[in-house]
């Protein structure tokens, strides 16, 4: 991965999508999946996909309790779908592989938001094509706000001190086009790019003028697992996981995020000096950098954020096990590869269930870590609470709502959830090349 030489472009801030309905209780949005070109490299055009633009999409911001209608138009030459990752809605509105939108057609889901403030996202989920469509640029963030997110004493001015960071790695051909030619190595690990993009710009920089800034980080990569840290050992505080705020801020020196996972963090730049450049790094490469211009408005962090009611374990009526197996083109869950005609699990509406997810895919001699990958487990239509990771209480930043969690070989993660919406939903590995190869199943609720 190329390292930044210091001369960087500035971080693009995505637009907030305009609500087209004047009624304050109803929000109406328009999204268009389209072809475009973008200059990732000066003077060079790359063919891309985007929503309402040339790469990625606008941020859809809604409130808990609000009625939401979205029109999604497909202007691509291929079918697509739009899935609301992390959103709790009926199966028909979920945008999984069953809700195909053909070229030229419009899909009009509507739902009522019924979950706490959180940073979710949306992306295509077309059978066998999810990886390619996301890679070319189809993804965007989906914010839910509520009274808690309004009133907490945390940075919440969008684009000022509340900044989205969509982190992706991409591979380009020698003529600067996206290189999504999947070889055997890519089938093993998922595609790993050598160019890091944040909000669609290569290793950008952001000027910081406040002491504390909130970053909403999405690992929007197809396959890369990041282990984020800041240069100069600067600490940061995680305040939210996939499905909402944690009970209290968790001080971290590094943060592991697998594909599909989100974390909201607050960085305390009061520890830096004006003129400093602080790098956000992962492993041995730079992701982006922060240039400290001035610092004011030093707010203390609240010690308590929200109260998360634990789902009582005794309420669970069913226990299920999911085991990640195989590798490369043979990846499976419980020995089965995805089949759209087969329903893998039947759940009762409103059931509370305990799911145990294991990864028994073992390393292959001679291939080093290649055959030995962690798989991020994700399920649609609900948010989990992690009960145990390898028999232990999970780490503090995994004690909130999660819809995606990483399971390394030999690990066992035990989670609990309620299934409040009827319909057909997916569960899968969020390494998109694994999902597309068949590491996915479906469950019917009700
Ligand atoms: Cu983010 Cu089934 O996906
Ligand atoms: Cu999802
Ligand atoms: Cu996987």
From TrEMBL:
Organism: Paraliobacillus quinghaiensis
Protein's UniProt keywords contain DNA-binding: no
Gene3D superfamilies: Cupredoxins - blue copper proteins
Entry's family note: Belongs to the multicopper oxidase family.
Protein name: Multicopper oxidase
GO MF, one example: oxidoreductase activity
Residue stretches spanning the membrane: none
Domain Plastocyanin-like as annotated: residue spans: 38-147, 328-446
Keyword field contains Metal-binding: yes
InterPro entries on file: Cu-oxidase-like_N, Cu-oxidase_C, Cu-oxidase_fam, Cu_oxidase_CS, Cu_oxidase_Cu_BS, Cupredoxin
Keywords carried by this UniProt record: Metal-binding, Oxidoreductase
Lineage: Bacteria, Bacillati, Bacillota, Bacilli, Bacillales
Coiled coil residues, start to end: none
Pfam families per record: Cu-oxidase_2 (PF07731), Cu-oxidase_3 (PF07732)
């Amino acid at each position: 991965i190329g390292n930044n030489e210091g001369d960087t472009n500035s971080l693009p801030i995505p637009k907030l999508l305009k609500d087209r309905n004047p009624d304050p209780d109803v929000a109406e949005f328009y999204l268009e999946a389209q072809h475009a070109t973008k200059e990732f490299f000066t003077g060079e055009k790359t063919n891309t996909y985007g929503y309402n633009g040339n790469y990625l999409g606008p941020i859809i911001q809604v409130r808990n309790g609000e009625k939401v209608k979205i029109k999604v138009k497909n202007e691509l030459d291929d079918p697509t779908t739009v899935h609301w990752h992390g959103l709790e809605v009926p199966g028909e509105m979920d945008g999984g592989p069953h809700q195909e939108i053909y070229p030229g057609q419009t899909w009009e889901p509507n739902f009522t938001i019924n979950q706490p403030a959180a940073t979710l996202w949306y992306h295509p989920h077309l059978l066998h094509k999810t990886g390619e469509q996301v890679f070319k640029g189809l993804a965007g963030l989906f914010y839910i706000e509520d009274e808690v997110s309004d009133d907490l004493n945390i940075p919440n001015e969008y684009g000022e001190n509340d900044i989205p960071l969509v982190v992706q790695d991409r591979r380009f051909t020698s003529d600067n086009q996206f290189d999504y030619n999947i070889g055997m190595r890519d089938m093993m690990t998922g595609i790993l790019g050598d160019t890091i993009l944040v909000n669609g710009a290569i290793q950008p920089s952001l000027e910081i003028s406040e002491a504390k800034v909130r970053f909403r980080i999405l690992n929007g990569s197809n396959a890369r697992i990041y282990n984020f840290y800041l240069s100069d050992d600067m600490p940061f505080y995680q305040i939210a996981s996939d499905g909402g705020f944690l009970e209290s801020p968790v001080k971290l020196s590094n943060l592991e995020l697998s594909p599909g996972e989100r974390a909201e963090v607050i960085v305390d730049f009061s520890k830096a000096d004006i003129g400093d450049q602080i790098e956000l790094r992962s492993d041995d490469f730079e992701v982006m950098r922060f240039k400290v211009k001035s610092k004011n408005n030093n707010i203390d962090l609240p010690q308590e954020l929200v109260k998360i009611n634990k789902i009582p374990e005794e309420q669970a009526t069913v226990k299920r096990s999911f085991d990640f197996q195989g590798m490369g083109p043979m990846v499976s869950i419980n020995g089965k590869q995805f089949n759209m005609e087969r329903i893998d699990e039947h759940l009762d509406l409103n059931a509370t269930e305990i799911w145990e997810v294991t990864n028994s895919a073992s390393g292959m001699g001679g291939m080093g870590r290649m055959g030995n990958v962690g798989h991020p487990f994700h399920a649609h239509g609900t948010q989990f609470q992690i009960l145990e990771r390898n028999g232990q209480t999970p780490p503090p930043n995994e004690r909130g709502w999660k819809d995606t969690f990483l399971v390394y070989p030999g690990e066992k993660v035990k989670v609990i959830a309620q299934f409040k919406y009827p319909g057909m939903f997916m569960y899968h590995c969020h390494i998109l090349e694994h999902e597309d190869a068949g590491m996915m199943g479906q469950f019917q609720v009700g």
